[in-house]
Design brief:
The complex is a heterotrimer of chains A (177), B (100) and C (649). With 177 residues, chain A is mostly helical. Chain A contains six helices and no strands. The longest helix of chain B is centred in the last third of the chain and has 31 residues. Classes of the chains: A mainly alpha (177), B mainly alpha (100), C mainly alpha (649).
Chain lengths: 177, 100, 649
């Protein structure tokens, strides 16, 4: 009964897709395929956000990543039109698996740390005991415009700088073909 | 039975996958995407902790992180474009002018 | 700023800045006018300040003026502020008055010198520092002036820097003074440590409660201050720089090394009299050193042949008198002698300068003689000064010297032995001064023909200051005629009474009841013996010069010892300078070059070597950096997990 809870099924599905998407993304030669797998992973993560009652941020994640960042990646990849040796991922072979082990160790350590310190299995935060309005636009906006106003304003300056920077970088210099 | 704590473990695994990507890729665009994955793993942890503690500050931080990620993507891809125009490649192993 | 005090100090500084910054751009005449004019303004302002002070009631004669707070930290605050009381009033009048006359004289004396602009700039800077010294209201500001006059002294001794001997003398003066300044600083620290203030009035008021009378602390503090005074005022053991300082131009010798700067030590003792009287041991040391210096320097002066050196040793000797007076708590008498000495010794030096000027820069008295008829004004004024320093009754030096001798005999802290030494010194003084007069102005003309043809009396700009100083040398003492003579109160001492009242309260001194007949008797002895010394000088150097030669042959050892100035310079050289020199060479060759440079160069070499190996880690490849970084993260996290760290709880 409990095991067939809809929440559980959705969690395992979304988590599996997010991890699998991410893994296929990095284990890939072709950047276009990579970007599409990344899209899969991001959308699955958005589902996880929804499960955590983060409605607003989940929506923003889809809009910003799927709508903007992944598209930007695809644009650049297609603009560069990579082929031939650029597509070969040369750290193939045994070297690749050594590196997999290194990152595996980091991941294992992180998981161990989390399991140890949050006490999974003893006192879980149940997902069905939602707080009213948690993660809605209004409460997030209230925080953003009061407590975190300073950071918010700084971020706007950062965006401005990034725009200027991107324009300067992408501009062709005179005499360049 | 699933709790918010399980999402933390998902975030940890995602992070490790991102690290794998940064380690094995030689294509700068791929490395960049792997970094984005690590960033998202951290975001997921923020959301999970916000749910655990019932505090929406985590949501705000994620919101700000997404903004930063967008800015970073714009500048980072601009850099890669410039680099490709100058050197005709996006292979990280070909850039070693900082070698002793 | 609501009094004239800052202006008194400021004007010489303005003169310095003009002459220093526009050096070489102004005409000689203008340089002299600016140099003397600014000091004249200071003198006039000093008179005004003095009159302001006299207008106040006797027990409230203090004018103070704080310019600004110089530095203030927790529990320590020093102002740049000036204090005018009867003591500093006398000092500024003497400093600016005598200073002005010497500035005017310098216009004539330095008329043909290349660096006249630089000369007047330094003189004005000196006036500025000296006035800061005497007008300062706290030890620290006084120390600023103290260092300032030391610097100017160094600059002016070495004024003719193309002469090796002048630069050497300047360095010597500077280094010897450093030893004294070190003592001054330490003494100042001890005072601040115990009293919590450096302000003169506060220190004087709090001293009786802050220190135990005769205690170690106060004794140490005052002895250190006295060490500072021995450096600046050329007392044993630090007197060696003053005779060499005669390498400077003669007006400098008159102003700095006779009339003003060298008396700074006496002024400082008088200023901190309330501290000194609390340490009887120090007072005894001061009196003994003063008396010893007086006698010692006088004996050296007996056989010197350089006219300025005779006067230099005479200055050291007279300063010894002043310290002896301070040592027996007769601060008033000491300051009185300081003033009269400023008049007649400045006059003597300026007269000697006039002689040197006329003699085409010849300083050796053996090549002079018979100058009386060539330089009448110089002769008469110098004779007056000689009479004053010898203590001819009725002239300034007599009153001040007699006052000191009487105090040395009768004061609670005095002793007949001190009086005896002072008396012997007095007759030695008479002897060597008249020897100087006779050798210079009387007898055979021993100079060569060329010099003789150039002999001339100095111009008016030089003789007028001589005449003014001669008048002061006669009349200057009349303001301090002892009670003994006319029954009237000693005006000078009465004027200074409020300054030394705190010291007198600590001493509980009762008016000593010595019979007037004793005082008359002692005075008669001194005068009679001085007359005898005069007669002896007359016989040796005018009537029968051959007796000197005979005496010299009879006592060759004594003559060599005195002529060689007791070989003190040589002893210092062997005992202190050479060992220090060798030690310095050791520090340079072994410690600095071998050890320190070796360590530093070795360190650099090591770093270079290690870097040569380490740089291979810099592959320049992004992927390898990321890999190393990740391995590092994995290792550190792993170690921390093994050690039991965790997040949260």
């Amino acid at each position: 009964m409990e095991a067939l809870n809809l929440n559980v099924i959705v969690f395992y599905l979304a988590a599996g897709l997010a991890i699998a998407g991410a893994f296929l993304m990095v284990w890939q030669k072709n950047p276009v395929a990579s970007a599409l797998y990344m899209l899969l992973s991001i959308v699955s993560q958005a589902v996880l956000y929804l499960q955590l009652d983060a409605l607003f941020v989940g929506a923003v994640l889809i809009i910003v990543y799927a709508g903007a960042i992944v598209t930007l990646f695809l644009f650049v990849i297609m603009l560069l039109n990579l082929r031939g040796e650029d597509l070969v991922n040369p750290s193939a072979g045994p070297k690749r698996y050594v590196k997999l082990i290194i990152s595996g160790v980091v991941g294992a350590e992180l998981v161990y740390l989390l399991v140890e310190s949050t006490g999974i299995g003893t006192h879980l935060t149940k997902l069905d005991s939602a707080i009213a309005n948690f993660g809605d636009v209004k409460p997030v906006a209230e925080l953003l415009y009061s407590k975190y106003l300073y950071g918010f304003e700084i971020t706007s300056i950062l965006l401005l700088v990034a725009i200027v920077g991107a324009v300067i970088l992408a501009r062709r210099e005179p005499g360049e073909n | 039975m699933i709790g918010a704590e399980h999402f933390l473990i998902v975030s940890a695994i995602l992070f490790a996958v991102g690290v794998t990507g940064a380690l094995i890729s030689r294509n700068l665009i791929m490395i960049f995407m792997a970094v984005e994955i690590m960033l998202n793993a951290a975001n997921l942890a923020f959301i999970a902790f916000a749910r655990i503690h019932g505090d929406m500050s985590g949501h705000v931080i994620v919101f700000l992180t997404l903004t930063v990620a967008a800015a970073e993507a714009a500048v980072g891809l601009g850099l890669i474009m410039t680099l490709y125009r100058r050197r005709g490649s996006v292979d990280a192993s070909k850039f070693n002018i900082m070698k002793w | 700023m609501n009094t004239v005090l800052p202006l008194i100090v400021l004007f010489p500084l303005v003169g310095f800045l003009i002459n220093f910054l526009l050096a070489g751009k102004l005409s000689r005449k203008l340089v002299g006018i600016i140099g003397s004019g600014t000091v004249l303004i200071s003198f006039l302002l000093s008179i005004k300040a003095f009159l302001d002070l006299t207008a106040l009631p006797a027990d409230a004669r203090i004018i103070s003026d704080t310019l600004y707070n110089w530095m203030a930290v927790e529990g320590f605050s020093v102002d740049v502020s000036f204090l005018l009381d009867p003591l500093s009033a006398i000092m500024i009048l003497v400093v600016t008055g005598v200073g002005f006359l010497i500035h005017v004289y310098s216009i004539g004396y330095m008329a043909h010198d290349e660096g006249v602009g630089r000369f007047f700039a330094y003189l004005n800077l000196f006036m500025f520092s000296m006035l800061t010294l005497v007008l300062a209201s706290n030890f620290l500001l006084m120390f600023v002036g103290w260092e300032g006059v030391g610097l100017c002294s160094y600059l002016l001794i070495g004024f003719w820097f193309e002469r090796d001997s002048a630069t050497e003398a300047g360095k010597k003066a500077f280094v010897v003074n450093r030893i004294g300044d070190f003592g001054f600083l330490l003494g100042m620290f001890i005072i601040f440590w115990n009293v919590g203030s450096l302000d003169f009035q506060t220190v004087t008021a709090l001293a009786p409660s802050a220190f135990a009378i005769g205690g170690t602390v106060i004794t140490a503090a005052t002895l250190l201050l006295f060490l500072g005074a021995t450096g600046k005022s050329a007392q044993i053991p630090l007197y060696v720089w003053l005779p060499d300082a005669m390498e400077g131009p003669t007006p400098v010798s008159a102003l700095i090394h006779a009339a003003t700067m060298v008396t700074a030590g006496v002024y400082m003792l008088a200023r901190s009299s309330a501290l000194f009287v609390m340490a009887p041991t120090t007072m005894m040391v001061v009196a003994v050193i003063g008396a010893a210096t007086a006698l010692f320097a006088a004996t050296i002066a007996l056989f010197q042949n350089d006219i300025k050196r005779v006067l230099a040793y005479s200055t050291v000797s007279q300063l010894g008198y002043m310290f002896m007076a301070c040592g027996v708590a007769a601060f008033g008498a000491g300051v009185f002698h300081l003033m009269t000495h400023a008049f007649f010794k400045a006059l003597l030096f300026l007269g000697a300068g006039s002689v040197i000027h006329g003699m085409s820069d010849e300083q050796d008295m053996r090549k002079m003689g018979g100058l009386k008829k060539y330089m009448p004004v110089t002769f008469i004024t110098m004779l007056i000064a000689t009479l004053a320093i010898s203590g001819l009754p009725g002239i300034s030096g007599f009153f001040s010297k007699d006052e000191i001798l009487w105090q040395a005999f009768s004061s609670d802290l005095g002793h007949p032995a001190l009086w005896f030494i002072g008396m012997i010194t007095a007759l030695l003084t008479t002897f060597y001064m008249f020897r100087l007069i006779f050798m210079t102005f009387f007898g055979k003309e021993r100079m060569d023909e060329k010099t003789k043809s150039h002999l001339h009396e100095s111009p008016k700009v030089m003789t007028i200051p001589l005449i003014v100083l001669a008048i002061l040398s006669i009349a200057g003492g009349w303001i301090g005629i002892p009670k003994l003579f006319f029954g009237a109160t000693n005006f000078f001492e009465h004027w200074l009474e409020p300054v030394f009242a705190p010291a007198q309260r600590i001493l509980h001194s009762s008016e000593a009841h010595h019979a007037a007949s004793t005082e008359w008797g002692l005075m008669a002895i001194t005068v009679t013996l001085s007359l005898g010394a005069f007669a002896l000088a007359l016989r040796f150097y005018l009537k029968k010069p051959e007796t000197v030669t005979r005496l010299r042959e009879s006592f060759p050892g004594v003559h060599r010892l005195l002529y060689g100035k007791y070989f003190i310079d040589e002893i210092y050289d062997r005992l202190i300078i050479r060992p220090l020199h060798f030690f310095s060479i050791f520090l340079w060759k072994i410690v600095d070059v071998l050890l320190i440079d070796g360590l530093i160069n070795g360190g650099a070499f090591l770093v270079g070597g290690v870097s040569r190996v380490m740089r291979y880690a810099q592959s320049g490849r992004l992927t390898s950096y990321v890999t190393v970084f990740t391995v590092g993260v994995a290792l550190i996290t792993g170690v921390m997990l093994l050690l039991g760290y965790s997040i949260g709880n």
